[in-house]
Amino acid sequence: LLQSAFLANIGANYRPDQLIFIDEAAKDNRSLNKCYGYTPINVRARKKTIFIYGKRYTILPALSLDGLLAVDIME
């Protein structure tokens, strides 16, 4: 109910070109390693992998209808 009220307020008081969205994402050498998997019933999931951290990059973009406004990339 609160989310619906919030969205109604945004829709009534702001134009789409006034909105800016941000979303954080990160990448390192472990990003492709899955924590969960599927196996037959009563069979434990196992995975052997080399444990490497490497460098981790975090990106924080700001997006609008006009495209990318700003980007901050941190190591």
TrEMBL record:
Species of the source: Racocetra fulgida
Domain of life of the source: Eukaryota
Protein name: 18913_t:CDS:1
